[in-house]
């Protein structure tokens, strides 16, 4: 009887500790500036705030807002003008994805446990 009562008390405490001590996730936010595609089509360099390499933890979220006048792709997000997209990474690994913003055409995403 005492063992059963102990389990009823101990198991919920363990669950609460695991949930509260787990590191919180982070949202990484980026913006595609207005005029990006126009500058790229003229051969001009664009200040690109979008990283070529992302180093994230499982549970982190990537958020990108497209303020340009044309659609763009960044990682797994295809964004129309004025659209904001979010992607949460649930699995660890190294991923390669597309980028139509700036000089690089690929983005490498490393997601760690």
Give descriptors for this structure.
113 residues; Immunoglobulin-like; 2 helices; alpha/beta; three-stranded mixed sheet
Which superfamily, in CATH terms, is the homologous superfamily? Cupredoxins -  blue copper proteins
The SS-based structural class is alpha/beta
Please report the total strand number as a whole number: 8
Percentage of β-strand residues: 35-45%
Q: How is the main sheet built?
A: 5 strands, mixed
The DSSP helix count reads 2
Please state the second-level CATH architecture: Sandwich
- CATH-assigned fold name: Immunoglobulin-like
Uncertain parts:
none
What does this structure look like?
The structure is a single chain. The chain has 113 residues and is of the alpha/beta class. The protein has helices spanning 2-21, 36-41, and strands at 27-32, 53-57, 61-66, 72-75, 77-79, 84-88, 93-99, 106-112. The strands form two sheets. It has a five-stranded mixed sheet, with no helix packed on it. Strands 1-3-6 form a three-stranded mixed sheet, with no helix packed on it. The mean pLDDT is 86. It has two helices and eight strands. It is elongated and about 80 Å long. It has one domain: Sandwich (Immunoglobulin-like).
